[in-house]
Predict the structure.
Amino acid sequence: MEADREDTLLICPCDHLIIGDFNRCVNTAVNEANKGHIMTIGLKPTRPETGYGYIQIKKTLDSESIATVNQFREKPNKERAEKWILNDTYFWNSGIFCFKASVYLDVLGQHALDIHTYSVLAHDNKKRYENLSILDKKDVEKIPKNSIDYAILEHADNQKMVIAKDIIWNDAGSFDNLIEEGASLSLDKRTHEHVSIESSNTHILNASRSITTIGINDVIIVDTADALLICNKGESQKLKQATAIIEKQSPGLIECHVRTYRPWGYFDILREEPGFKVKKINVTPGKRLSLQKHQHRGEHWVVVEGTATVVRDDMTFVLGRNQSIAIPKGAVHRLENNGDEALSIIETQTGSYLGEDDIERFQDDFKRK
């Protein structure tokens, strides 16, 4: 909807490994998309993979590299995958799509009217901030959840597939895939030495601490600042199921990572227990938080880097390193960085409720509610 209706769009997942002449596949897809087709890219299976979706094409090819889609097939069990790999009409679904904006929106309106209607509403109610379109969260939440496969591809009759040749492709959407490609995943700047005793084929990724393994085999361990995953190799595709359970049991863990970005900078949650929370808040030079108050918590700020301009009710304070200020519950306040360097403060919250939604905004540079 942001694009011109006659624009041709290439939609690519961000977690795929592609080696080879991908440009040829894209150029072929664009040429066909300009004729009004919804294009996808399919790859000949090299193993009975149960973690990918499949595309079944019609037996007669349109050309050497173009086929008409017969149907999209969901992730199979092992027995079915072993049959499909022997059938020349089955290909891995790369999840890469190419189409004209007008073609996609028209098909969306035909086969997923509810998604189309609420998407139009969200787009019409958008706000602009600098070069960004900002959608209202409540509008977006009204859009029904569905995948492009279910909503459109199972119904549209103008679909074709580019047969990808001479390229290496892997959906690196699981930790098994990353390990298969020899990836060394490190999202933490710290490095740690790990101890392994009588453990084989065990992979430790993104460790935020030193980890010792004793007598375990064929295991993946993914360690982050707020969550730990331990699973058997070959089972990491089930992480989606685990995440759904966690979302019901501990929604806060899903909604808020230990580092949360805001238009004015970001904050890290250093410690959280019932009754208190400790954050490190980093404010970009020239930015400021909203003018706000809290109903359920008080705050105490200590400046550790930079210079803070603090508004508290009808008073303004300028604080340097090691200086602090208390923000009582119910006080109208704001934190600003009017300097040229980054501002960092340690915030200690105390109160009966410490959720991020306990914010009543009176004025905000970023037009948030």
User: Anything to note?
Assistant: DSSP finds nine helices and 26 strands in the chain.
